[in-house]
Specification:
alpha/beta, 7-stranded mixed β-sheet
């Protein structure tokens, strides 16, 4: 593709822009901007107000029309994609119904309190602080979507058609993508983490694989992921194949009654060892084991971070 993976706003052509935040690790998410005929669509905000203000200022400097955001699309309900929503002014904020529910359930003051008191909350909170303690969760006013949809919704940005397509539950319960047919461009949110392990908070894994297949069936050349560099269908195939592989490998070990943490330790050192954030393999294997056990309860986030912390320490020792 040749798109540089550098901090800031990148013109990807035809009135479409990608805002990238290397190196794409915990909380360092991407966003997007679509403009036409003086109208604008922002795809996601960032983890805190400071980062979102910087992004919007860079957009305004490069694209004067973005001084007013008409539409804001939240791809899913993780805070690094919506904690800056309040800075979009009077924009109509659009998301899936499930995404909107998740946003309303994760308040910034909860994260601020956890970061301030992480020493008292165990190894899961300590690891969350280690990887995300640099963000500022104070002073954020939770600003949820004002328009929701289920399945699909077509928007107009000037003369541009933007198709919002629900593909979750997968990474979260309410994942959706933004597809611009004429521009052959798609913004995928966290269906794609390019160059690093994804993390499956919701599942099932088959839905994530199907989401990748859905993107592959689109007529697209430019793929803007939720984290990592701009890619094309190669990056989509890699993510699909990752989940096919870990599902098969984890199922074999689950059937042999091998504990989830042992399975994660084995798999993280195998086929995708070069990808970043290997600790996420612990959360992914635990999600797969719950799925194989036909458990429908939501994961305890601090327990998931604790499992990832243990794998992270092991990977550091063996590096």
């Amino acid at each position: 593709m040749g798109w540089a993976y550098t901090q800031g706003l990148h013109d990807i052509g035809n009135g479409c822009y990608a805002y990238l935040q290397p190196n794409g690790t915990w909380g360092w998410s991407n966003a997007g901007l679509v403009t036409d005929s003086g109208q604008t669509l922002l795809v996601d905000t960032l983890m805190d107000l400071k980062l979102t203000r910087v992004m919007l200022e860079r957009m305004r400097t490069a694209v004067p029309a973005s001084a007013r955001i008409d539409l804001l699309f939240n791809t899913h309900g993780n805070p690094d994609h919506y904690f800056g929503n309040e800075l979009a002014g009077a924009a109509t904020i659009v998301a899936t119904e499930h995404c909107a529910a998740e946003i309303k359930g994760t308040r910034p003051e909860m994260l601020a309190a956890m970061m301030a008191n992480y020493r008292m909350l165990g190894e899961g909170a300590a690891f969350a602080h280690e990887v995300m303690g640099g963000f500022d969760f104070t002073g954020i006013t939770l600003t949820p979507p004002t328009q929701t949809f289920h399945g699909a919704l077509t928007l107009a940005v000037g003369r541009k058609e933007v198709q919002l397509i629900e593909v979750g539950p997968a990474h979260t319960k309410g994942d959706a993508i933004a597809y611009l047919p004429a521009e052959r461009t798609v913004f995928t949110g966290d269906i794609l983490f390019i160059g690093s392990h994804p993390v499956m908070w919701a599942g099932p894994v088959g839905n994530w694989i199907a989401a990748c297949e859905r993107i592959l069936a689109l007529d697209v050349d430019i793929v803007v992921p939720g984290h990592g560099p701009v890619t094309d269908k190669t990056g989509v195939r890699e993510t699909r194949d990752y989940f096919r592989w870990i599902e098969s490998e984890a199922r074999q070990r689950w059937q042999s009654k091998i504990p989830a943490e042992q399975t994660a330790r084995e798999l993280v050192k195998a086929r995708y060892a070069q990808w970043g954030e290997g600790e996420r393999m612990a959360a992914n294997v635990r999600a797969l084991y719950r799925e194989f056990d036909q458990k429908t309860d939501a994961p305890n986030v601090l327990e998931e971070f604790a499992a990832m912390a243990r794998l992270h320490r092991e990977l550091k020792r063996s590096a």
